[in-house]
Amino acid sequence: MNTPLLLLWHLATCLPTTLAHDSDTAYTSSPTAPPPYNAAYDNGTFSYYPVRSYATAEDLHSPQTNFLQWDARCDDGLYYFVTPRGWGIPDPGPMILDSYGELVWAKHFDNKFGGQAYDFMVQTYQGQEYLTFWLGDDRVRGHGSGFYYMLNSSYDIVHRVGAANGSSADLHEFLITPQGTALLTMYQITPRDVTDFRQFDPANPEDHNPNFIWECLFQEVDVATGELVFEWRASDHVDLHDTYHGIGPGGTEHDPFDWFHINSVDKDELGNFLISARYTHSITYIDGKTGDIIWTLGGRSNAFMDLSDGFGLNFAWQHDARFVPLDTFPNMYRAPPERAGYTTRLVTLFDNAAEDQHYEYGLTYSRGLLLELTYPTTLNTAPAAARSEHRKRQDDSEPDLNAAKIAAINGTNPDYTVRLVKSYENPNLVRSSSQGSMQILPQDGGGGSDPKVLLGYGLNALWTEFAADGSPLCDAHYGAATSWERGDIQSYRVYKFAWRGAPQSPPSVDISDDDVEVYVSWNGATEVTDWVLQCSESADDGEGREGEQAWADVVRVKKQGFETLILLPEDIGESRYLRVIALGATGRRLDAGVSETIDRGLMSTFYPLRVAASSVRQITPFRVFMVVVSMLSGGLILYEGYRRYLSWRSGRGGGSPLRWRQGKAYRLLGEA
Ligand SMILES: *[C@@H]1O[C@H](CO)[C@@H](O)[C@H](O)[C@H]1NC(C)=O
Ligand SMILES: *[C@@H]1O[C@H](CO)[C@@H](O)[C@H](O)[C@H]1NC(C)=O
Ligand SMILES: *[C@@H]1O[C@H](CO)[C@@H](O)[C@H](O)[C@H]1NC(C)=O
Ligand SMILES: *[C@@H]1O[C@H](CO)[C@@H](O)[C@H](O)[C@H]1NC(C)=O
């Protein structure tokens, strides 16, 4: 019966010294690179969407971001903004990741349409930074009707912006202007004669109620009041025959003809607009007062003469057209000398070169394009170039279709020129047949150096970050490459922004069942550098001076990724309550940065049990050796005790201190 007591004594005295943790550095150092590329993740061994889960946030998952290539220049203090969604993702939503692919913030907004988010950005409105993204009904596939949400730095929804005049906001664009207005796209079912594109059979119920299109509009609305400032309807200005998209069995009220497919709107300092329409292979510059078209680049109404062997015009099914200032790339690009009467501008866009598995137009891969356009300044009405007569129906499939298209649409008026400045191409020449984005990355200070360029590949779960000269720096997969072109994991756009998030809900904590590991995370908190584990004997929740004094610091560790592991040191002793405090860069406590209190329960404070449990947490050969030695010596002590007992019994002789068995225990103490 002495055996268990002796064992406990032995554990309590021997093990702590042999097992004192000597590996703190292993979990306090910061990463210097993301984990190496994992070919098995990428070939689908672990599903299309291998995720990481967290003890402190059971409802959150983040992708096992898989970098084929990584460069320290991607660690620029900015975060990636993605909206993972698709067949493979049960809890889609907006997500922020750091330059190593570690989760910073994610949230699934449950709505009856599945909660897929689109177009997640940081934008400035009235001097404040907001997170903006779209949520709504996207079951129509390819566009949607819903609202744009604006969240403040504590992740509270503070504005919900819809379209004016009874419309609902499409998912493609929400751009806040310096004037406090927002640009939005809209899709509306509108009657138009489409009998040039197909015949309808009155006897066929599928053809019931023919001659409808998806009309594309964009609006400028006042964010504060919701009032309409400007509205533009595609079919008022663009010929339906400009489309390259097949009508298929569509064109009815039930299945309207999606002929234009607007997907981006930009506004310049002149008050004019630049829009991208995927199904006309064109971007169009629009007078901000009259709505008249100033010029069109690409497609059947193209005005521009291609000076780059077709590479200025051969984009197809593109997304995300933007003006960028002429001095964006001070080293790589020099604008031509100014010419009176002419304007030169830079435009970026994501050239998909494909549409929903249709590859007959464009190159064999998607890319980001930086184009230089020159055109007459004074002109603000219809373009000087004649419309191309290259108006084929959509069932074309000749292999040279793309070359024929370029030859047919090439401009004839030398006043309008387009030149390819740079093409940004993924090293694996990935082709994404829907969605996608191209962003010129913001840079600190800005002075002198060329900015990086980020491509989001939309339908396919990757983004690629480039140096300005087109060399890829970081190439990240957030789903298996075997999912490409399947739609299992997609993000409409991918951006990078600076962001400071300061949630007002407390950090989340969890303790392992063996009472050895404490986990802490704080969804969306960007300013935490360190965590401090505190302990207390009393359950006081820490409010008020006396409560604060009850808490003692136990250990401070560096924040590590989304969720930080803190190993409970042995000397925490009998403190039953624990909590974790968030510290910022200067060592100051962050607002709201006190976790809930962990109650370890009565038993867990029993020291030897805790120590025994801790012995299994990190097994090294040395430790195994020490434990074995320690156990052996413990066994030896027991054996020796038992041997002596036996020899005492056999001897029955006097003088032994253990004669209490004979009822003479009073001799035990004080025996000389
Ligand atoms: C996936 O990659 C892993 C690691 O390279 C390899 O062992 C495995 O055979 C691959 N599986 C398939 C289906 O290609
Ligand atoms: C964000 O908005 C919520 C709700 O209006 C407000 O309670 C909170 O204080 C705001 N956060 C910040 C940082 O302004
Ligand atoms: C509002 O919508 C109606 C119907 O779609 C349209 O006739 C009207 O012109 C719109 N109003 C404005 C100001 O655009
Ligand atoms: C477009 O037309 C111009 C002027 O004729 C010519 O120099 C250029 O090579 C043409 N580009 C293509 C891609 O055909």
Automatic annotation (TrEMBL):
- Identify the domain of life: Eukaryota
**Transmembrane as UniProt keyword:** yes
Q: What is this protein called?
A: ASST-domain-containing protein
| Entries under InterPro entries matching the protein | Arylsulfate_ST (IPR053143), ASST-like (IPR039535)
- Annotated region (Disordered) at 382-401
A Pfam family assignment: Arylsulfotran_2
Could you say which residues form the signal peptide? 1-20
Question: Which ranges does the record mark as transmembrane?
Answer: 622-642
Give UniProt keywords alphabetically: Membrane, Signal, Transmembrane, Transmembrane helix
